[in-house]
């Protein structure tokens, strides 16, 4: 199952809270979240579902409250036999292998879908609002459109949208929004698709996975069901079910209904293409790639609606269909953390500790670089150590998120030599390099390393540097920049010329391919030598950071950084 501590917690929960002493437990396929599911078979042959949300990040409390709300209003949802919210454990009624995908045949597909639509009709006639659900407001809607603009589009284009391009997109979808929000708000289950509709008996359909419910246009769920990216439902049946729903909701105005439905379809298909992109690229679940082509078809159909002429023109200009595709994982799944140096410019601060273990507020300098990797969901890392190595090794043992390998150096091999010593670890695949010298506040909608991954081209690049305009660097501010950009090329300031042309500083984050180290010297050498090698062969890439940046190389810079970061 899992680690011994978790096994003990589960056993205690089942014994002491659920009152079960004998059972057979087997793992079930996981869904798109971090939850795990197990089926318990009891001695009498009955079954239960154990939901394990060990990270406690899947709104279990909301699940319980909404489950009670649904059951109270005559909607079939799983009974909850026992729960421990503090440990993220819940024992549920088992609906068996009865989801739509397993039950559907060409003969019964329409009947099953109609039963699922009946659930929505009943739900949308309930006017009470569960106290725990949040509004599906403008911010929620725009944030979900951002999955499309910030994840799916860059994965296809190989670059982020410019601020101008992105802003013009959101101006259009925001302008369309009021017409979509005219219908009365209801409970929006949010994940009401064919895998989450169950048929445990011959009566009503049952629903699961509703902890992320919102209060807003319920037609979002209708779109999710009858225009599901996971199943190719004939357009004629989709239209028939749409009309079936409308005919049983007499209070709805046809014009408002159709406008809202179209906008919810636009939101659904763009959001899901973005969500599938994160599952493929970040969560490393390539199976979701098989749903992307149908998602593209559904979006293409939706964009034909007359309300979306301006948006379709935007798409034709900035993201034409020739650019649409299936996101490809570029295999950048590991990282090297440079942590071997003393940092002599830190003076007395590193007399008894390595530079990465200098305190910035209540955190260590190394932690800020590790944050970048955690944001990008990179777990497998190598950390090189030399000076006062025991302190770093001890600290890394406390960080259970990472699978950490330690590369020990008898003498510091500098940046290039340190990486070369561990180069076999990366299996001839590109990897991320993070210094422990800089702090980048990675607070945008999309992690900065994931943005770099979008721009990485394995055929074109040997290395890609993260740069920042020196005007935006705080702390140990440089007197001159490391690089200038000429056309689409990057040139290093080898002579350390104090010139406004060299306006970019390297912020200590890079993507590197192991082939860059072919023919490199043994022992000590600087990674900058390989930067120059890649530049000379026109294989040096760059990405411009728009985040807040601190260079922390002196005691004064430590004070300034602490003052700016923790001024509140």
Protein topology:
Layout: H1 4-17, E1 24-27, E2 36-41, E3 47-52, H2 60-72, E4 80-84, E5 89-93, H3 100-103, H4 109-124, E6 134-135, H5 138-157, H6 163-180, E7 186-188, E8 197-198, E9 206-207, E10 214-216, H7 219-226, H8 235-247, H9 254-281, H10 292-302, H11 309-318, E11 334-338, E12 359-360, E13 363-364, H12 365-375, E14 380-385, H13 389-397, E15 403-408, H14 414-421, E16 431-434, E17 438-441, H15 448-455, E18 463-469, E19 473-475, E20 483-486, E21 489-492, E22 504-512, H16 527-536, E23 540-544, E24 548-551, H17 555-565
Parallel strand pairs: 6-10, 11-14, 11-16, 14-15, 18-23, 19-24
Antiparallel strand pairs: 1-2, 2-3, 3-5, 4-5, 7-10, 8-9, 12-13, 16-22, 17-24, 18-22, 20-21
Helix pairs in contact: 4-7, 4-8, 5-6, 5-9, 6-9, 6-11, 7-9, 9-10, 14-16
């Amino acid at each position: 199952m899992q680690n011994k501590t978790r096994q003990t917690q589960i056993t205690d929960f089942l014994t002491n809270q659920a009152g079960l002493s004998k059972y057979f437990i087997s793992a079930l396929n996981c869904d798109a979240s971090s939850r795990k599911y197990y089926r318990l078979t009891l001695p009498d042959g009955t079954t239960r579902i154990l939901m394990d949300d060990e990270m406690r990040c899947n709104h279990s409390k909301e699940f319980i409250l909404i489950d009670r709300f649904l059951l109270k209003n005559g909607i079939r949802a799983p009974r909850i036999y026992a729960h421990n919210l503090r440990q993220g454990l819940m024992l549920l009624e088992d609906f068996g292998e009865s989801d739509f995908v397993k039950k559907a045949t060409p003969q019964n597909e329409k009947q099953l879908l109609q039963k699922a639509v009946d659930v929505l009709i009943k739900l949308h006639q309930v006017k009470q609002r569960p106290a725990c659900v949040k509004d599906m407001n403008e911010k929620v809607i725009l944030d979900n459109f951002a999955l499309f603009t910030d994840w799916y589009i860059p994965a296809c284009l190989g670059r982020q949208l410019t601020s101008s391009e992105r802003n013009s997109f959101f101006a259009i979808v925001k302008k369309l929004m009021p017409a979509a929000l005219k219908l009365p708000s209801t409970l929006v289950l949010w994940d009401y698709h064919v895998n989450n509709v169950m048929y445990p008996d011959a009566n009503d359909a049952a629903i699961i996975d509703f902890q992320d419910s919102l209060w807003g246009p319920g037609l979002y769920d209708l779109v999710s069901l009858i225009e599901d990216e996971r199943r190719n439902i004939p357009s004629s049946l989709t239209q028939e079910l749409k009309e079936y729903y409308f005919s049983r909701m007499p209070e709805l105005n046809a014009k408002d209904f159709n406008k809202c439905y179209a906008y919810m379809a636009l939101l659904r298909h763009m959001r899901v293409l973005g969500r599938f992109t994160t599952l493929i690229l970040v969560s490393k679940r390539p199976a979701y790639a098989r749903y992307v082509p149908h998602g593209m078809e559904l979006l293409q159909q939706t964009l034909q609606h007359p309300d979306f002429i301006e948006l379709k023109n935007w798409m034709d200009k900035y993201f034409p269909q020739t650019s649409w595709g299936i996101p490809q994982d570029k295999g950048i799944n590991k990282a090297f953390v440079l942590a071997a140096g003393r940092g002599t410019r830190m003076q007395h601060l590193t007399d008894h500790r390595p530079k990465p273990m200098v305190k910035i507020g209540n955190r260590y300098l190394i932690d800020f670089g590790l944050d970048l990797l955690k944001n990008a969901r990179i777990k497998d890392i190598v950390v090189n150590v030399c000076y006062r190595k025991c302190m770093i090794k001890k600290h890394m043992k406390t960080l259970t998120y990472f699978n950490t390998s330690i590369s020990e150096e008898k003498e510091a091999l500098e940046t290039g030599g340190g990486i070369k010593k561990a180069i076999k670890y990366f299996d001839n695949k590109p990897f991320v390099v993070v210094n422990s010298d800089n702090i980048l506040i990675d607070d945008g909608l999309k992690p900065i390393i994931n943005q770099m991954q979008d721009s990485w081209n394995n055929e074109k690049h040997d290395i890609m540097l993260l740069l920042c305009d020196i005007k935006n660097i705080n702390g140990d501010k440089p007197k001159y920049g490391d690089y200038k950009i000429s056309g689409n090329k990057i040139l290093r300031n080898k002579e350390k010329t104090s010139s406004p042309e060299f306006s970019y500083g390297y912020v200590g984050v890079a993507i590197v391919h192991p082939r860059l180290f072919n023919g490199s010297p043994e022992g000590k050498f600087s990674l900058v030598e390989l930067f120059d090698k890649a530049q000379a062969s026109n294989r040096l890439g760059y990405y411009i950071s728009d985040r807040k940046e601190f260079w922390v190389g002196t005691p004064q810079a430590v004070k300034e950084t602490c003052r700016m970061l923790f001024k509140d």
